Amino acid sequence: SLMEKDEVALGKIRGELIGLVFQDPMTRMNPLMTVGNHLIDTLNAHRREKSYEWKVRRSYELLARVGIQTDRFNSYPHEFSGGMRQRLAIALALALDPPLIIADEPTTSLDVSIANQVMGELSGLCDDFGTALLLITHDLALASKWCHRISILEEGKIVEESSTLRILNEPQSITGKKLVLAANKREGESKGRRTLHTSKIVLEVTNLRCWHALPDWPWKTNWLKSVDQINFQLFEGETLGIVGASGCGKSTLCRALIGLLPIRGGEVRFNGRNLLDLPGPLLRKELQSLQMVFQDPLACLNPNMTIGQAISDPLLIHGLCNKSQAKEKTRELLSQVGLNPPEIFQNRYPKELSGGQLQRVAIARALSLNPKVLICDESISMLDVEIQVEILALLGSLQRQLGLAILFITHDLLIANGFCNRLLVMDQGRIIEEGSSEEIFNTPQSAITKKLILACPKLCSVS
User: Fold this and answer.
1) Does residue 38 register a pLDDT over 90?
2) What is the C-alpha separation between 67 and 81, in angstroms, rounded?
3) Between vectors from CA 102 to CA 101 and to CA 104, what angle results, nearest 5°?
4) Rounded CA gap, 250 and 243, in Å?
């Protein structure tokens, strides 16, 4: 029994007998250790008899297995995208070929293509070595493709357990029926939106470049071209989707647009003004109109601040109102995003809210400065399918009410097709294909786009 083991015995079991893949990989990684050293450290703990050269070769093999180029061996976790960090976490779980792998939302941050590859790797390990896989996921389509049996949990209890096909075709519990209905609804609504007829350009990006120098190249500069010669226009009231594999540069592009990452060249024009030419005070004022909703709302909210304080903080920082006015504005925003009554939610802390409620808070905070452009970076990928549908409906409603232009970054082409007017497909820092959602989804031209569409998770039920 594991309950009877001491810490030393449990330390040997973890990793060697049970591999763990956590939902948020950044919380389990040491920011002072390189990617390669994370793998070496795991191998040192359990394979002390092996040579250092063997451990390096094994590390390269593991990186390649999860789709990470070996020249990133000496990079640090913060230099990876969320999806690449998740791949590293999976590589660490696979390092010792354990007989059991517990994967808690292992593909949340991954694009559908890499998710398919990684789940294939995990499934292949089960087949080749008799490894058992316990998959914890909110994605019913993912579970239907890779799992033999499914258990449905609600409030800490299993409310239904059966074969995958029976769960999908004849769900017995109320929760099971709601999950299957929401998954079918999401697939049924992915028919694309009509072309937006407007000519006013809100945001225009020209030849944008974000390059980063890779470590351990003392004799020359080896540039990682995360964003390389990007060009696009975003129109008023439009939803422009940016899709691509994890590590293709989507999140780097977002962070560069709002000033969180340095730009090495190009132009970012907002309402006709190049933001890169503006002095600090004017740039700060203009950037109020570009706000971002991040992937993990819990990670971007201060755990020591109440929800009301988190939303009113931007208003006070920018001196847009006094404290009493900020409180009133906060209550209006909470109500606007569906958190009622706002008087209750404003006094709660982030840990007291569900994932869907936290994402609504993140949206409310982004709206506090009355932006013209909302940048959503994988903002629904960590939510279950039912809540995804709710948040997408909320974003669509807010867009119509406020006239927002939305830059919607996602790795899920199925969602992008149903929510976006136009799509840009990125690969290795460049745009390789663009067009209306229907054109991209129905008649893809590039091999990358075709691969992403084929890998889109769908319910694998049998009539």
Assistant:
1) yes
2) 13
3) 140
4) 7
Residue 461 pLDDT > 60: no
Is 10 or 18 the better-scoring residue by pLDDT? 18
| pLDDT tens, residue by residue, 247-300 | 788 888 888 888 888 888 899 999 888 988 888 888 888 888 999 998 788 888
Q: What is the 3-state secondary structure (H, E, C) of the chain?
A: CHHHCCHHHHHHHHHHCEEEECCCHHHHCCCCCCHHHHHHHHHHHHCCCCCHHHHHHHHHHHHHHCCCCHHHCCCCHHHCCHHHHHHHHHHHHHCCCCCEEEEECCCCCCCHHHHHHHHHHHHHHHHHHCCEEEEECCCHHHHHHHCCEEEEEECCEEEEEEEHHHHHHCCCCHHHHHHHHHHHHHHHCCCCCCCCCCCCEEEEEEEEEEEEECCCCCCCCCEEEEEEEEEEEEECCCEEEEEECCCCCHHHHHHHHCCCCCCCEEEEEECCEEHHHCCHHHHHHHHCCEEEECCCCCCCCCCCCCHHHHHHHHHHHCCCCCHHHHHHHHHHHHHHCCCCCHHHHCCCCHHHCCHHHHHHHHHHHHHCCCCCEEEEECCCCCCCHHHHHHHHHHHHHHHHHHCCEEEEEECCHHHHHHHCCEEEEEECCEEEEEEEHHHHHHCCCCHHHHHHHHCCCCCCCCC
User: Does the N-terminal peptide bond of residue 341 adopt cis geometry, omega within 30 degrees of 0?
Assistant: yes
Q: What is the pLDDT of residues 202-220, one digit of tens each?
A: 999 999 988 877 665 556 6
DSSP-assigned beta bridge partners for residue 21:
103
CA–CA distance, 455 with 453 (Å, rounded to integer)? 5
CA distance 172 to 352: 30
Model pLDDT, residue 109? 66
Q: In Å, how far are 81, 84, 302 from 78, measured between CA atoms?
A: 8, 10, 19
